Amino acid sequence: MLCVRPVSQLSPPTSNPNFRGQTKMAIRRLLLLLKPFDANPVLHSDGFTRFTSPQVLRHLENRNEVHREAINLCKDILQQKPVDWEPVLRNDLSEPIRDVDLVVTVGGDGTLLQASHFLDESIPVIGVNSDPTQVDEVEEFSNEFDASRSTGHLCAATVKNFEQVLDSILSGVAGPSKLSRISISVNSELLTSYPLNDILIAHPCPASVSRFSFKIGNEQSSSPLLNCRSSGLRISTAAGSTAAMLSAGGFPMPILSQDLQYMVREPINPGNLFTFMHGTVSPNQSIEMAWLCKEGVIYIDGSHVFHPIQYGDIVEISSKAPSLEVFLPTRMLYAAEETSKDMHIQTRSRI
């Protein structure tokens, strides 16, 4: 099923009397990708509630309503803009997204990540965090339940500033950034999914030991061959370095870095090779892994997208994947600019 109809079949753009047309628009076709909302967020199919705490029930109902209102607001704003657009639920994506100039995701980082698996480098994406975490709410209920909502690390907008951010994109004032993704090949066959955050290569049973060997290098040189027994191997991009990698003890990377970060999870007796269990892979290098268990799985950006592997398979991982064009939050762009300045200063000081 195609996820986007040709533009000729889309609804004609709504006339907007407030648009004066001072700036020529480059974006005319837009896909609104939506995280589904639960019609009955606190009920099982048999009608019984999942929780008994009234506060938890109110929290879940409120999250659902906030997300629904965010979707409606984004639609209302788009109705006032001179663009063709169509809403699609993220669960209905089945083929690459084509024939649009911009994708707007409404949900959180998960919705943006799912969109990325259907996008090449020619179509930019912007995320709208529909249900941001409220610090006061988390503090108020910290002794009773986890009141966290959506992190939206990569989302450049919320309902409060969506129209402002959208206008800056349509007018050409704001531009997307290129985020690195991961290229994966199994036995020299390239996988079609390019992870934006990270991958985990592990035994399908979390209680089982993963056995594999790997080395890092290029045509000129490589690291020693590392024979591992562990809980698997995690590799992240710069964008994903603040997610599971950071939780596991990794470090955050500059968002525009093209390096990859890898970590052997819970290595068993690494000995004098311990320093090789965690590190980075530069753009001109790759990781070559030999899988040495009967079963294995490559998990891509979480658990929903995965690829099975088996004993003897050779997996190659690098950052030589098409980048993803993402409109990033201002705070992230500022941090990237400061990091670039620091690196420039350090480079000049060495000269």
UniProtKB/TrEMBL annotation:
It holds the Pfam family NAD_kinase. Keywords: ATP-binding, Cytoplasm, Kinase, NAD, NADP, Nucleotide-binding, Transferase. It is found in: Cytoplasm. GO terms for molecular function: ATP binding; NAD+ kinase activity; NADH kinase activity. Its EC number is 2.7.1.86. The keyword Transferase applies. One of its GO terms (cellular component) is cytoplasm. It is an enzyme of class 2 (transferase). It comes from the Eukaryota. InterPro entries: ATP-NAD_kinase_N, ATP-NAD_kinase_PpnK-typ_C, NAD/diacylglycerol_kinase_sf, NADK. The keyword Zinc-finger does not apply. Homodimer. Belongs to the NAD kinase family. This is NADH kinase. The gene is LOC111012854.
